[in-house]
Amino acid sequence: MKAVGWAQSFPVSGGVRAGRQWAREHVEALEWTREAPGTVDDIVLAVSELITNAHVHARSGAQVMLAWDSRCLHVSVHDAAGGEPASPAPDPDRPSGRGLLLVDAVSDSWETRQQRDGKTVTACFSAPGQPDPHAVAGK
């Protein structure tokens, strides 16, 4: 399989749970559940956190796209808010504010792209058994 992708919009009400289920179903089509169940869980966690950020911070629906290019599964979530997503210092007494820290911890890389109608946060997950495509040679 060379390249494949899926896209879906998730409304503010009920979108996070539906997004997790939708992502898991599509990642299973790549057979990663058998090969790398931990990576599947990481992808689902990233989708959940990015949809939550769109709903809570941008106060908008979330447009989610999964794109597999045979090297990385790109998990992109677009929302209606501009600007860079904030990643506050972790506070053990606060029940929220760790979404981007989690995405950073479970993905191989992530970035934000600004657009006229908001921003898109994209996290990349390397294929199971493949070297990290973002690793710098010699490091």
Rg for CA atoms:
15 Å
Structural class: alpha+beta
Would you identify the regions where 5 or more consecutive residues have pLDDT less than 50? none
Number of helices: 4
Classified in CATH, the superfamily is Histidine kinase-like ATPase, C-terminal domain
The assigned CATH architecture is 2-Layer Sandwich
Number of strands: 5
Using the alpha-carbon principal axes, give the shape.
Answer: globular
Structure description:
The chain is an alpha+beta fold and 139 residues long. It has a single domain, classed as Heat Shock Protein 90 (2-Layer Sandwich). The protein is built from 4 helices and 5 strands; from the N terminus they run E-H-H-H-E-E-H-E-E. Strands 1-2-3-5-4 form a 5-stranded antiparallel sheet, with helices on one face. It is globular and about 35 Å long. It starts with a strand and ends in a 13-residue tail after the last strand.
